[in-house]
Amino acid sequence: MKILRAEIITLLLVVASIIGAIVFFFSFVGKEQKKEKTDLFDLLLPEPKSVLLINQPAEFISMLKRQPQLYLYFKEILPEDCYTFLACKKNSPVLLAFYAQGIMFYSYSVGGDAVWLKHSAFTTVKKEGIPLRFYPKTANQYLGFYQYNDVFVGSYSRKLLETTVSLQKRGIKDSPVYLKELRRNIDKDALLNVFFYQEPESDWKALDVFLHESQVCCLLNSPNKQLPDSLLKVAGDSLSTRITALIPELQPQIGISKDDSIIYFTLCVPLFSNDNEK
Question: Looking at the structure, do residues 44 and 170 belong to the same domain, yes or no?
């Protein structure tokens, strides 16, 4: 009887240890699953001039090939390396921030991130224990990048890159507060979201760029101040004029709608067939 009782106790202890191991395993897996991705916006430094969130890089490049005026505009503001980087990312979002010192680009790390950097020669410098690689582009210009945790960050400005890696390593978030408010109202499924400073109003705005049938359109939301329709038309024409001044050959068609709290300005330009690809 004593032997049987001892065997039962031993069996219960074995079962308890197995259950404990299973509980620990699933608890650990649960914690890992709850671990959130780094918010790319948390890596932004203060005082950007403008910010682009390209949600669908492959579609963005495809759109530019079908819209010559937009293609030429972005060719002026984005270096060729950015297009190669976007092509590598395909459907993984890319954040671009424009500063007085240069452009910063951020994305989530995926396999083969550095493949797009085809240069064999580079210089490695450690900052906060994290290796920064600098690839020569011209006699006086280097493209640097680093990978840390789940993100990939690059820039032509060593100062911007080193400041970013220092803040990220120490867990300091110094990104602009006003962008957090704007992000609440953007369409996260849009082709890209644009954040920019509007001079006359001395305020930051956000617009969504999306594809609609054979057009590329942008949507700008503005608080409804109960303006008469005549003034809304003036505001819409003013917005269209600003875009035309920025990209002269672009002649957007504008649409205006509203509800009780928001006015929606939509501007669209046609897309052309793939025969016009650059």
Answer: yes
